[in-house]
Structures are given as structure tokens and as C-alpha cells.
Predict the structure.
Amino acid sequence: MSDTVKIPRFLLIKQYIENHIASGSWPVGTRVPSENDLAVSFSVSRMTARRALKELDDQGFLNRAPGRGSFVAKPQVRAPHIELRNVVQNIQNLGRYSCRIVSLDSIHADMFIAKTMRVNVDDELYKGVFVHLDANKPAQLEEIYVNPSLAPAFIKQNYQKVVADAYLNWVAQPNHTEYQLSAIMPSAAQRRQLELTHEGEGPCIKITKRHWAQELVISLSILINPSDSYHLGAEIT
Amino acid sequence: MSDTVKIPRFLLIKQYIENHIASGSWPVGTRVPSENDLAVSFSVSRMTARRALKELDDQGFLNRAPGRGSFVAKPQVRAPHIELRNVVQNIQNLGRYSCRIVSLDSIHADMFIAKTMRVNVDDELYKGVFVHLDANKPAQLEEIYVNPSLAPAFIKQNYQKVVADAYLNWVAQPNHTEYQLSAIMPSAAQRRQLELTHEGEGPCIKITKRHWAQELVISLSILINPSDSYHLGAEIT
DNA sequence: AAGTGGTCTAGACCACCAG
DNA sequence: TGGTGGTCTAGACCACTTT
């Protein structure tokens, strides 16, 4: 006799959605059926339909938003395991480091920051903006958001002496760090901070760095580097 | 007024378990409370306790087995060796790789190329231009210059099958690789090759890669990536 | 007001593993 | 046989967004 394998229903629903995405019939941005839709059309409880959508969300195939729906996500190419040399550390080793503190205070999380740092909108966060100088010339603009519950004294430190990143690594050892790299056109404010005088010219490299401790995001750093200032170290094979 | 934030119960359970793991009171291999145990002790339904355990399983903190229980997992050991893996290799692993050969011929070094490759002006070099495709969509534009004395058959290879970079690593093992990163505005030709025309204006990440063998430069690659396509993997400290 | 996703409950049946 | 995790149900309340 043929052994019929029992396939979980949530998997059938996942495959149904995946097929539509893979075949292109649901292009990026398409709204997929809601939990209730799927529950009805697959004759399944909402919790089961929900599981299918949630796992597709976790896997990056969907973006979901309360009150709006679930949408086909834009595929992202991942390149694992790249080390970015720390520009600031580099300058410090050369003995030319100094820091300009643009701001350092307590703020309330907007939607983007809240999502990225896994906190609620309007939660209190620390925010610091620094310009790292190499021989008194701006080398990097840093915008850092810190979860106060994990580093309550963050805002009281003297960042003329200690770099914010080093302080955080000390008080709340991250067990995980994520990097994301992109190229951007700096805003007028960013250009001013970096003293990029050439009008409108010059894209920058943006590095987004997220430190985790257990399940919590300790900090989110947004580093803006002028286009030509970022050199990666030599690597031996 | 003090806003009390509603914390989901499954999160409290997760944190409870994480704290025991992080503090060392539940070492690797320890059996953690079962779904039913947690449901009772936290006065919660089994589905809620289950969620906490399942997420910790997904995140690699626990190993679970039907009939046996949930156990503290051994911390994931990541390679301490840092590697810059290129986008192309990644796409190949996904089985979605293809390549469009824009040009492949013999040229004479201009001043910039000659200086960068440590050869004389007007020396003969091989030059290839490729568009690396991920599921038939451009993911990276590669411009590669090769020293013919170190890879004389470079120009005769079939790059539909073998990536130029892989071929070079095979015929002339580089003992040293340098990377340089910058942000650029793509030229009209580059935008066309990457099919960025519909996305309007946008900066790109440029990676310049130089392979050395002994004191000679084997190759110089200039890789252009659309601004948002480059995500870096997580890294354990 | 209607619809969406986020959380949660109090049950249920199953396959699996242990003593 | 009793406990474990894996799947599933048919409800529920909430915060949120859109209409």
C-alpha cells in the first residue's frame, strides 16, 4: 500500500503563497490574502492560516502590518560574513582622533526606529549624534540610538574620551551584531556635518549596525562615510 | 503619568528562560521546563508557553524533540575567519545565477589602470565586462582587468559557465587580496547595464578588488552594486 | 465601522519517547 | 502508560489602519 504522508495544513498554505510569488503572478508589493481570507478558503482556523503568513514573514517573503495587510516583500540578496573595519578605531590607532558631539539626549521612538530597535513607538530612547574627526577633519558621521534599559548611564558618559560604541560594548556585551550596507545621497544636514562643501556632489556609504543582547536591541548605529574614505583591509587567503 | 507598557506573556517566558541560560544557572544540555510546566507556573495557556519555547528553538537557544523535551543548545560557533564572499557566489548558491557578457577582449592599459595594476602604460591587458544576474535581474556589474602573463587563457574561457573570478582563483592562486569600498553615482552606461533606468537616480556601492600573486597584480575587479542590494550577514563577536 | 494583524485561551488529537 | 512536542480549533479582545 502507498503510505500517504500527512502534510500539515499550514505548509499547504505556505506553498500556495510561495508558488504565487515564485511564479510571478503575485509580484513585489502585491497584497496577499488576509488571515481570515485564507482561513475561509482553506477551511482552516485562523490560527493555522496565521502561522503560514507569520512564517513567510519571518523568512522575509512577506511584510506584514497591523491594519494594512500582508504584502509580497522585495527579495534581498545577502552576502554573509563581511567584516568592516572600524574607521574610528583606525583613526585612534593613528593618534589623530577627536570627536564633535552634535547632540546627546533622550528622545521618543518614531515608527521606523521603533521597528528597527524592537521597541514600541514613543518609547524613550537615547540618541547621540557624533562627528568623528581625523586630524580635525570629519571622517564619519554617527547617529546612534540606545535602549536605555540596557545602558541607563549612556547619556552621562564623556564621549570626548570614550567612543560611544566602545562604551556600549563594555556595559552590555552584544552577542550578535548585524550590518547593513548601502549607498546614499547625503542630506544637506549630513553634508554640513561632514563638511562636504562640493555642492550636491558625492554619494556616501551608509552602514547600519545593530547590536543585540539576547532578544533585545541594545543600539542602532547609522554611520555615514564620505564616498572615498572607506578602505577595507587587506585579506590573506 | 507613568505609562505602563503591556508586555506580551510569551516574551516574559522567553526572558525568564534566557536569563537562566545567560546567567549560567541552566548550562548547555539542561532540560528546561516543558510547555505544560510553563503553562502552569506562568498561569498561561499551553499555546502561549509553546510560543516562547518555539521561538527560542528557532533562534538556536534550545533544541527540542518530541517525546523528550527542550534542552539548552550549545552556543553556535561561527568561523572566526572573516571572509568577503561576493554577491555572485551567493546567487550561485541559490541556483539563480546567470551571466551576461558585455565585452571580453584585449586592450592596452591607460594611465590609471597601468598604475593600479603595476604595469606600464600601453601594456596589453585582458578586459571583461559582465553583468551578473540573479533570476535574470541584474545584481552586479563587473569590470575586470587581468594580467595576461599570469592568466594567458583568460580570454578564451566560457563565462556562461564559470565566473571569471573563480577561474582566476583557479589558475593563479592569489596570496593576497585588497578591497576598497566607495559610494558612487553610476554613469548612464552603468545604469543601463544594471537596468536602473526605471528606478530613477540612485547611488551605488563600488567595490574595488585587487588580487596579488607574489609581487604582481593578477587582476583588478570593479564591482558595482545597486544601492539597496547589499546586505551583510550577522556576525558573532 | 469594517478589516487587519497581534495576542491569548481552553480545549483537542496525534506521533513519539521514556520508564 | 504518561509525558513530550507538533498540529489544530473556534472562539476572544486589542490596537491599529483604512474607508
